[in-house]
Specification:
Elements (H helix, E strand, L loop, with lengths): L1 E8 L5 H11 L4 E6 L2 E6 L3 H8 L8 E6 L10 H7 L7
Antiparallel strand pairs: 1-3, 1-4, 2-3
Length: about 90
């Protein structure tokens, strides 16, 4: 199982463009919205496959990043994040 981080910046787009991209992200069954434009996805797919799939939901002037998340530290009351990641990592 790959744990991926997805970050995006849609350049001067209406709210509907964000909703379309978010719908695409949510097509993966294991997702967590970490911040407004940052999601974590747990999937059997490789990061390039996820990037290629999500590209259909953005325009050429938008930015999209998909990376492999292998470890992390966080703070700020993210109980939900801890619960999500504990399914894939050993949380200390």
């Amino acid at each position: 199982m790959n744990v991926l981080i997805v970050a995006y910046d849609l350049h001067e787009k209406p709210e509907s463009a964000y909703e379309t991209l978010i719908s695409g992200i949510r097509q993966y069954s294991n997702t967590f919205e970490f911040q407004k434009s940052v999601w974590i996805i747990a999937t059997e797919r490789e990061r390039a496959n996820v990037r290629d799939y999500l590209k259909q939901f953005i325009q050429s002037d938008d930015k999209l990043f998909v990376g492999t998340l292998t470890n992390g530290s966080w703070t700020g009351g993210q109980t939900e994040l801890t619960n999500f990641l504990s399914n894939y990592w050993t949380i200390e």
